[in-house]
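Field guide to reading this record: the first block holds the primary sequence, the second block holds the structure written as discrete tokens, and the final block holds curator observations. Each block starts with its own label. This record concerns Aminomethyltransferase, catalogued under organism Pseudonocardia ailaonensis.

BLOCK 1 — SEQUENCE
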Amino acid sequence: MSTGTAVRSPLHDTHVALGAAFTDFAGWSMPIRYGSELAEHAAVRDAAGLFDLSHMGEIHVEGPEAATALDRALVGNLSALAPGRARYTMLCAPDGGVLDDLVVYRLTETSFMVVANASNRVRVAEELGARAAGLEADVLDRSRDTALIAVQGPASAAIVESATGTSVDGLRYYASMPARIGEDDILLARTGYTGEDGFEIYLPAGRATATWQHLSEVGAVHQLVPAGLACRDTLRLEAGMPLYGNELGPDRTPFEAGLGRVVRFDKAADFVGRPALLQRRDDPGGEVLVGLRGSGRRAARGGCPVLREGRPVGRITSGALSPTLGHPVAMAFVERGLDEPGTCLTVDVRGRPEPVDVVSLPFYRRS
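BLOCK 2 — STRUCTURE
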């Protein structure tokens, strides 16, 4: 339960009225569930879920050299991004370690919005500011003024179209466009963290309650339900999506996590961490991230040792009993050479060995 000292979302009173259970997450009091997290998970897979993600950070980079600043600061080629498109990328330290994984939206030729994890917002804003020094680019943290609401699931397009009165047929994945819900201007993005089709809505914090209510009303016919952070975690795990602090962190580069594709060595600008990342690309180190499938009902959790013939060969980063698939799934860093699908390993789950097989990620892929 929340300690009462955490920052409250602009939708806090709405969550209280809905009977949410709260947790302290990255300094915020956020709804972890409203009833059954399994029911919320199933709703997103079968219909749609409504998420409050207002704890995320929204940092704007603006000015004639905004694109140059981001090319220097991040591992991606953001200057090649067209207005209205978004890109998944990372902020790395000089030694190549991941300081945060980000989604960057290009709003106009000279303005970008960088969406950071809540726990890393301050660090990301400070690093972007330092790396933009000497360029005509302003770094503005607008997180507290911005609310973020997500609609995720097979019915999400129909719900968003009803709420905005706008067709989303032409809105591609990882693209955004301006829209309106009621009297409010929003940024509508076809992005998400669940493995389903979905949309994220950025809007002024003061208008969050009205927008949530409107989405709830138009979504009722599509079985839209409020969904908390607990099911968001099992949804992203099934979809094989990394979580900062679990699969990503300052002690890992993108290459160990199987995300080396986001590092663009071919862009014109030099960027922080390039020499270390180039070395890691050519010599990827001793561990690699894999998916593991269990056969019983006992799920491995983060920190559980992974064994091969009784010898420790890795450690679980995320694990759960998959609500969709009905068997345990996990991600783990294991010794390179043990990442071939079909490799048989064992996980020590509270002192009891549980057999697992290495499988390709993701565990779940929508049809």
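BLOCK 3 — OBSERVATIONS
Residues 1 and 23 are 5 Å apart (CA to CA).
Helices lie at 12-17, 37-46, 66-73, 121-131, 156-164, 208-219, 229-238, 274-282.
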